[in-house]
Every structure is written in structure tokens, then in C-alpha cells.
Amino acid sequence: MADKQRAKKQPRPRSGFLTKVVILVLLAAIGWQLYGLRGQLKTAQEEKDRYAAEVAAQQQENDALAADIAEGPTEEKIEEIARDELGYVKPGEYIFEPGN
Questions:
Q1: Chain segment 62-89, per-residue pLDDT in tens
Q2: For the chain, domain boundaries
């Protein structure tokens, strides 16, 4: 019975100082990696938001062009294109642009 009590009372071997230092270094390295990943995640989220805004703007432009195509060529649309994109004016009409 005395042997059983001694077996129970024997102290466990303690982990050495070097083991504690290695674990601490590993934890610090993992923390550093997580911090770096956090920055990459933030950058990726900002990029995703920017692309989502670009997609929404392009979709809006596509919808407007699809509506123009569905409507077909009207006199008003032809006149608008001639004035805005080609710079045409009606006979006897003068265009004054600010700043010129």
C-alpha cells in the first residue's frame, strides 16, 4: 500500500523554460498571422464593395440602353443624339456655352 501512495504522490515532470518560450513564440506567430489576415480581409471587402458599385452602375446603364432599344427610334431621341453627341443645331439657332 505504501507503494501506491508513493506512486500517487510523485510529482509530475515540469515543462522546461524552453518549452514555455517555444509555445509563447508560436502563439505570437499565430497572432501576427491573424492580424495580417484581418488586414487582407478588410482590403478584399473594400474591393468587393467597389466592384459591386461598378456592377450596379453598369446594370443601370444597360437597363437604360435596353429601354432605348425597346422604345425604338423616336424623333425626340434622334434629335437628342444629334444635339448632344453630334453637336447639330436647328437652322437659325445659336448655342451659347458657359465659360467660352
A1: 999 899 888 888 888 888 888 888 888 8
A2: 17-84
